[in-house]
Each structure stands twice: as C-alpha cells, then as structure tokens.
Description:
Blueprint: E1 2-8, E2 13-19, E3 24-32, E4 39-45, E5 48-55, H1 60-67, E6 85-92, E7 103-104, H2 107-114, H3 124-137, E8 143-147, H4 157-160, H5 167-172, H6 181-195, E9 203-209, E10 213-219, E11 222-226, H7 248-255, H8 261-270, H9 273-278, H10 284-292, H11 296-320, E12 325-329, H12 330-335, H13 337-345, H14 356-360, E13 366-367, E14 376-379, H15 384-397
Helix pairs in contact: 1-3, 10-11, 11-13
Amino acid sequence: xxxxxxxxxxxxxxxxxxxxxxxxxxxxxxxxxxxxxxxxxxxxxxxxxxxxxxxxxxxxxxxxxxxxxxxxxxxxxxxxxxxxxxxxxxxxxxxxxxxxxxxxxxxxxxxxxxxxxxxxxxxxxxxxxxxxxxxxxxxxxxxxxxxxxxxxxxxxxxxxxxxxxxxxxxxxxxxxxxxxxxxxxxxxxxxxxxxxxxxxxxxxxxxxxxxxxxxxxxxxxxxxxxxxxxxxxxxxxxxxxxxxxxxxxxxxxxxxxxxxxxxxxxxxxxxxxxxxxxxxxxxxxxxxxxxxxxxxxxxxxxxxxxxxxxxxxxxxxxxxxxxxxxxxxxxxxxxxxxxxxxxxxxxxxxxxxxxxxxxxxxxxxxxxxxxxxxxxxxxxxxxxxxxxxxxxxxxxxxxxxxxxxxxx
Length: 408
Ligand code: ADP
C-alpha cells in the first residue's frame, strides 16, 4: 500500500510517498516558493534520480496538480501516480481541544477543522488548503489528518491553564496546547522499546530540537506537560523563534518603538532565537563553526539555547515526579553531540552522565549515557512523515471510514 504524506506550509509543500506497512520512503520532495515566479518542485527517490521543475506556481492547487500528475510542467513526469495512492496523510498543526488522535477526514470533520483555523494562523490555513485541494483533485482517495497537538490532549488542567482571567479559556479556548506531539509520542514509545520496559513504568522527557524545538514530559505513556504553549512560538529558544519572553516586551515594541503588531510578531517568529542573538545564522552547524573561530555572539547564542533547553527540562520534572530517560531527537538533538554535551552539562545535578565516545559517534539510534548515569540518555531519530504514514494506514485498516468527498 502506498501512502502520500503532505505537509503544506505558507509557500511550500513537503511530500513523501511511503510503501506501507514496511514504512520505507519511496519518494520525497518539496515544492518551494509557491506564489512566486521562480517556484520549484524537486523530488528524488529510491529508484529515481533527483528531478527538479522550475515553474511559475500561482497556488498550492497548481503545485498539487503538477505533483499529482493532473497537469504537466517542463515535460517532466509527475512524482506521484495518483492511481497508486491508497490514502493521503496530512500534517495538521493545530487540532485544538477537538482532536485527541488522528482522524479520517469526513465532511463533518472538515467543518470541525475550520474551527481550529485561527488557533494557528501561520500554519493551519495552509494545512487546510492542502486538504481542500486534494479533496477537489482526488475525491476518491481517503484523507487523514494527523495533529501536532493530539498527543498533548492528556495534559492535566493545572498544566495547560494560563494564569489569565478564566473567561479567556471558557470563551476563547486560550490555553497551552503543545506541538510536535507526533514526534514526542514516537520517540517516547521507541525509548521504552529500546530499553525493553513498559512505557507506563517510565518517566521520560523527550527533547525535539530542530528548527522548531520543544520538550515533552511523558509519564504513564501520556504527555503530562510540554514546553510549547498556545502557539509554537513559546517554550525553549529556537532557530528563529524567541521562545518564552516577558509578554510586556511585545507591548513595548508596539507602544514605545512604534512597530505595527504584524512586524513585532514577524520579528519574534523569524528574526529571533539563535539567529537573533548571533546575528549570523539559525543553523547550528554554522554557529558551532563560527564559535570555534571566536565568534562571541555565536557562542552566546549556543549557550543561551543550551541553558534554555536544560531549564525547560528541569521545569518539566515535577509533572512526572522524577526522570528515568532523556531522549534527544530532530536535526540538532540527533546530530549535534556538542549541543547534547552542553545541555547535559547543565543537568549533572540530576545524575546525568554522558559517555563521551558514544555521544560523539555511533549508530543514529543509540544510548549515549555512561554506565553510572542515573538517567538514561538516548538519541532516537524521528521521522514525522513516517509516523503520519503509519497513523494514516492504521486509520485505514482499523475500521475508520476515511472518506473524502467534494463539496465540503
Ligand atoms: P525542522 O524543524 O525543519 O524539521 P530539523 O529537525 O531538520 O528541522 O532540524 C534542523 C536543524 O538541525 C538546523 O538548525 C540544523 O542546524 C540542525 N542540524 C542538522 N545537522 C546538524 C549537525 N550535524 N550539527 C548541528 N546541527 C545540525
């Protein structure tokens, strides 16, 4: 069975085709700069050399039409043969309080998804466009929504309630939601498998450190608390996002520095984080090389990031009453031994001891702690698209009735 996964952003669409149940990615690719004259669709696969089409893509619809082979561009064969696709799994960033797990998209579900649109204005509208375009272009192919927020729906009320007038929760559903849930769930479950333990007996903190970064405390197999909040802007410091700051700073930018609200939010989302501190890059590889050659603000940015993650980990421990396992995942968590070292350096009081050699080198999935450690430290590669494909297949095969029709 082949499953197409789609992650639709504001000007890009990331896609992969998986052969299930094996879970191998046959094709992966991306459409970029949608809406601009020099948009590009690129893909490659197990048996396909790198292909690239440069084309003026006016919309996500056009990009998906080309991708799905319903329109030709540049004489290239499209990456997807729609006849082969058993289902489409969509990443949907925000499912609000409506969705505790992945769902088959029916007309009723699509209407409910509409209610989540404004909860993540930078993400959800594009995810919904992907769903609508697929529904119009390939109406007979079932579609499934997989939510970043679903895993965190188990948070207790004292963890998700903000200390603002309660009416904002009652009337507007303002609360902590948390994100990257698909990844946190996958690596926590995998950690228990690797350790040969029942996940319900483990207290785990998962650190998803990529362009966006978040932490999750998993107790009794459930998300008990997490670092991101109402939106993916809060929590630990990130590549270009500020993470937690004093909310009065936003008012200051607007009132005292005369910035329009949109500009203030753009700065906090796209010009902050380690990019903002270093003035150099949001890529941690660039920052580590610059710091090695004496770039002080790159070194400061790395240290601010490491401290913010360590502080975040410390702050989650009460939610699970201790810590047995710390898992690092995503681009930085999986690949940067220096960052793992810096973060764990702030956590030695917990009895965390890394094995320096294992931390530096080994298989992608490994235990990097030393025998005397009191908290096992694991590196586990995440693959959100693969998890989306697995969720989609499980909805298809476990009695869900994923139908997707025109007109919703
Ligand atoms: P996304 O959130 O876009 O999925 P990723 O999980 O791919 O992000 O992570 C991207 C980040 O991973 C980038 O900041 C990049 O610097 C970092 N990264 C990737 N490889 C390394 C490495 N070898 N050392 C340090 N950082 C790395």
